[in-house]
Write a sequence for this structure.
């Protein structure tokens, strides 16, 4: 195999610095009552001033620390680089929790590379990218999840390992819902069918933390349809490096269509269930 041309440990260190700095800004700058700055795809798809400030900080610090890299962020889109590395950032993952003062939100920072020969002027995609490093920082409780490709995953320095395999009926399953009403209707129908088949369902509100919860054993399984690249880039690497399988349906990789994460030996039953519900392709 050809040696990795990028220093994965250095990328992990940078991801950690960025996620913590942005997380501190957002946490310490939180007003008593957060205001909705604007709405996006629907009235409940909101952005706050802090989402924008966090992404500004991430972009400014990356320009200082890694000026040749590209960046893809939720609030300001894609700016290409020349090095082949692209930073995929979610300045606040769990904005609705942040708005309401609930603890489950994070800053998610990942470094990815596209396939060999991929044009640098196009944003990398989860179907074809290789994630090299990821950091998910949850400022409300100070936890930082880190992963480097081939280096394992940690929570505040302690190695992470997914739960042992177990049957679906004993599995605690996390999921999430998109912001569009039509999608939610279909997602609700699937949850209604799944709930009697599992231990219980959790909707924590940050996809990045959901994936890290699979890594730490706080969830057995997680699935969500409609995730954006920045929702899953760092968390999926943390889960994988802790021993999870992260996949889409019908042999596809995880992407906007579907993201499923869990221990091999546990995840198959959920994948089979979700594949059998593929008729609900609007979900
Ligand atoms: C959202 C969160 C949520 C998930 C949504 C995402 P945002 O991200 O990750 O848990 O269910 O699909 O859009 O908008 O808070 O960055
Ligand atoms: Ca958002
Ligand atoms: Ca997000
Ligand atoms: Ca966000």
């Amino acid at each position: 195999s050809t040696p990795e041309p990028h220093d994965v440990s250095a990328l992990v260190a940078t991801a950690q610095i960025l996620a913590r700095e942005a997380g501190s800004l957002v946490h310490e700058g939180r007003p008593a009552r957060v205001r909705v700055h604007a709405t996006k795809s629907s009235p409940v798809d909101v952005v706050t001033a802090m989402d924008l400030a966090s992404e500004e900080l991430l972009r400014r610090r990356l320009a200082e620390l890694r000026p040749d890299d590209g960046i893809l962020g939720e609030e300001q889109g894609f700016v290409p680089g020349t090095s082949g590395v692209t930073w995929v950032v979610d300045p606040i993952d769990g904005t609705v929790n942040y708005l309401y003062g609930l603890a489950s939100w994070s800053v998610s920072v990942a470094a990815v590379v596209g396939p060999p020969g991929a044009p640098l002027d196009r944003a990398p995609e989860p179907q074809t990218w290789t994630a090299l490093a990821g950091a998910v920082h949850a400022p409300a409780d100070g936890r930082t999840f880190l992963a480097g490709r081939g280096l394992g995953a940690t929570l505040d320095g302690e190695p992470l390992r997914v739960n042992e395999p177990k049957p679906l009926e004993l599995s605690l399953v996390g999921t999430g819902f998109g912001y569009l009403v039509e999608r939610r209707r279909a997602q609700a129908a699937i949850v209604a069918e799944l709930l009697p088949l599992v231990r219980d369902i959790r909707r924590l509100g940050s996809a990045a933390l959901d994936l890290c919860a699979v890594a730490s054993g706080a969830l057995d399984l997680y699935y969500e349809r409609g995730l954006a690249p920045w929702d899953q880039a760092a968390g999926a690497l943390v889960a994988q490096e802790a021993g999870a399988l992260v996949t889409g349906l019908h042999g596809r990789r995880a992407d906007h269509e579907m993201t499923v994460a869990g221990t091999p030996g546990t995840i198959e039953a959920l994948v089979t269930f979700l594949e059998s519900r593929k008729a609900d392709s609007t979900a």
Notes: The mean pLDDT is 96.
